[in-house]
Design a protein that fits this description.
The chain is α/β, with parallel strands linked by helices and 147 residues long. The protein contains 6 helices and 5 strands; from the N terminus they run αβββαβαβααα.
């Protein structure tokens, strides 16, 4: 995790530009080396990658750290709505981000598995391409379907 994440981050940042205000946030379980990690990802309404983070646990604090990182990364294009699945820790993390001043209070949180179809459909591909060879294809990092 520590070895590949900085390189992936560097390559993805070059592809960043405008993102729509409608974010989809989700996580999946991927194998990194010989360990299993949670891959949290945020994409916009068109399926373009906003940010990602690998973590050991799937908790409120991990969701908070990831969403704070995504908001900071896309500070020029803050979200107007965030769609997540119905896990209980997402609303807590979003409220904490609002309380800490990282998100506006007017953010709409939508908890629905159907709104996340863009990111849910991508889990099969991300699980298949989570090894060290995945970082070699720079073009695939600019498009969620290759990541």
């Amino acid at each position: 995790m520590q070895r590949y994440a900085p390189e992936l981050e560097k390559r993805v940042r070059r592809c960043q530009g405008y993102r729509s205000g409608s974010w989809r946030v989700d996580e999946t379980y991927v194998r990194v080396g010989d360990m299993w990690k949670y891959l949290s990802r945020a994409v916009d309404g068109h399926g373009r990658l906003i940010d990602f983070m690998l973590s050991d646990r799937r908790t409120t604090s991990a969701a908070y750290r990831f969403q704070r990182k995504a908001v900071k990364t896309m500070s020029k294009y803050p979200p107007s709505s965030i769609a997540t699945d119905k896990l209980a820790f997402y609303p807590k993390a979003i409220r904490r981000l609002q309380r800490d001043g990282h998100l506006r209070d007017a953010i709409e949180h939508q908890a629905s598995k159907y709104l996340n179809n863009i990111i849910e459909a991508d889990h099969e591909r991300s699980s298949a391409s989570s090894g060290p060879r995945a970082a070699e294809d720079e073009n695939s990092l600019c498009h969620p379907q290759g990541f």
